[in-house]
Write a structure and sequence with these properties.
Elements lengths: L8 H14 L9 E6 L2 E4 L15 E3 L8 E3 L12 H11 L3 E5 L2 H9 L5 E5 L15 E7 L9 H10 L5 E4 L3 E6 L2 H24 L5
The protein binds zinc ion (ZN).
Length: 214
């Protein structure tokens, strides 16, 4: 795990949530982020104003077990563990991720709609693809799209199946909902999330404008 500035992880999660809020990724209390540290897995709470999180609001969970074992809970009893917990766990368990984030970006939602019938988002020939693990700008980027469910936690099995089917891809789109993106550490997860969001936006806007991207 690399936190380049050696910032404590709860502080880092609060800072990243403010940045993601400014990007429109975690507005309306949606979205979230989880980072693995030496002590366990840090996770933002569910259903709160993500841009106003404080370090003492962050949960610390035992990362070695699939069931929820709380190592450190916020003092505020109204805070609940993120609804995304089992989905974040998919990336930690199946990919050995160091960080996972969930965005409700409008570009992810529109991209999932645009490619709904195909079942996967596709783009090719864009420079920003280089920010994705193992991807060059002339390769074809493919991101699986899974159907949304009434409860976030009900996405767990279909997200896991998509991750198994697309082993080279570090993202899963959820139709009409958003995207999950992960990386070996928080910086790679953030970089990849920014690149995916750029690609989703580029393709959606190109479609709207009726122009070819490459
Ligand atoms: Zn969500």
């Amino acid at each position: 795990m690399s936190t380049a500035r050696h910032e404590p992880i709860p502080e880092l999660i609060c800072e990243l949530c403010r940045q993601f809020y400014a990007l429109g990724w975690v507005s309306g209390t949606g979205g979230g982020i989880s980072i693995r540290g030496a002590e366990g897995i840090y996770m933002a709470p569910s259903g709160v104003q993500k841009e106003r999180l404080r370090p003492e609001d962050i949960w610390l969970l035992d990362g070695a077990h699939d069931d929820v074992k709380v190592l450190c809970a916020p003092a505020d009893p109204t805070l609940k563990i993120s609804e995304c917990r089992p989905l974040f766990a998919n990336a930690f368990r199946l990919r050995g991720a160091g960080a996972v984030l969930h965005s409700h970006s409008l570009w992810a939602v529109l991209a999932s709609r645009l490619f709904a019938e195909r079942g996967e988002f596709v783009c090719q020939g864009l420079e920003m693809q280089k920010g994705l693990r193992g991807m060059g700008c002339f390769d074809a980027v493919r991101v699986p799209i899974i159907a949304n469910t009434a409860r976030e936690s009900e996405l767990t099995a279909s997200m896991a199946a998509a991750m198994v089917a697309y082993p080279a891809v570090d993202a899963v789109l959820v139709a009409g909902h958003g995207v999950y993106v992960w990386g070996s550490g928080w910086a790679q997860a953030k970089t990849q999330a920014e690149c995916y969001d750029y690609l989703f936006r580029a393709v959606v806007e190109a479609n709207r404008l009726g122009v070819r991207l490459t």
